[in-house]
Amino acid sequence: MKGKLVISACLAVLTLSSFGYYVFSHSSYPETAIIGEWKEVSWVYDRNNADEKVKQEIGTDERIDIANHLVIHEFENWIFMKDYRIKLHEQNGKEHLAKWHLKGRGRILTLLNDDGSTEVYSIESLKDNELVLHFETDVHARGIVKITLKKLN
Amino acid sequence: MLRRFSNSRTFLDNLRLGVFTALIAGMVNVASLVLFYSFTSNLTGHFAILSQEIADGKWFQMLVVLFWIILFFSGSFLSNNLIINSTKKNAFISHSIPMVLEIGCFVFVGIYGQFFYTETLTQTEILVSVLLFSMGLQNGLTASISNFQIKTTHLTGLTTDLAIHLSMLTKKEYRMNPQVVEKTKLMAAIMGAYVLGGTFSGMIIHYVQFQVFYFISVAMLGVLTYDFVKTYVPFFVNKKKHDTAIQLNIDKIQDSIKNTAMQKNRVLSESK
Prior knowledge:
The structure holds two protein chains of two kinds.
Chain A: H1 2-26, H2 29-33, E1 36-48, E2 53-57, H3 60-67, E3 77-80, E4 85-89, E5 95-103, E6 108-112, E7 118-126, E8 130-137, E9 143-151
Antiparallel strand pairs in A: 1-2, 1-3, 1-9, 3-4, 4-5, 5-6, 6-7, 7-8, 8-9
Chain B: H1 11-36, H2 44-56, H3 59-84, H4 91-115, H5 121-145, H6 156-168, H7 172-175, H8 178-208, H9 212-271
């Protein structure tokens, strides 16, 4: 009886470890998928009411207004590098370097700036050629802003 | 706190255990939320996420969440298994093994987080797994030894039960029932302790980061030591007294045997 119990316990530990190994050897998939250069294609308010769906484009001025505390409002191109650095840049040469990390099962993107400040974005969707980010703003009480980026390479 | 089992536990035993473990659960949950952006003391959200990942067809993310749920389950399973297989003699040891394992998990997360964590997704998910396993251990331990009176890692059921008990207390017949009153006090104390632990953790986490897990481990070790002293010191003190009394009695008996034998010898020699 005791022998059976020990064998069952060993089998359970072995199965759990194998499952864990399999899961974690593939869990970096979102980190692999995000590597590359992305270009912003839209900024919209994303608010869903029960009986209406309001989606409103955000203009350049308003973009500065709602995201002036974030580095991203100044840049349209994002390059995620393998060494967890991100380069945000404009065509005119202006650029900003930070560190990026994914957390919460790859649903949270954090940008760590050189001054120690951290910016947190929620990854709504990450596909091969499309990245959709959300961040919350209280400006005009509009709620959540949705940024869509397309992969360039 | 850990020695007594099931119905032999008093209200105070349960109150102490509930408050202490709720403090730990609150601290761990807020720490993991700040450090990993994931909850680790409750599973309801993870079940919802699991369903969402299945619906979205994100199989690897689904497997990660499934693994987390299985680890919490395994922790509770292991705790209860150790407890139901314990005997009266080794009850304290069996009850403290889940807590020792839990401390091991916290120390691992603390050391790994402080010295080796580079914030990769895999590392984050592994550390979250360890914390979920530890919370499973704790929930299994508290629920098992308190006869399912205490569950401290999630508050959904507790809030519902507290609301029900408070509504019961609006009637005089229930206010006169000490069991209902004690259960209400216990649940309110657990809820308060969870919030207190979470708030404290939230206040210090930005300064101490992963070292918060050392504080938790030290506190748990303190409770284990206190319980150990309460369990074994009276035993050893009584054993010493008991042994001395027995030795005295043995000495007395030996003396009387000696005296009797000497008297017999004297009588025999005189009669010869």
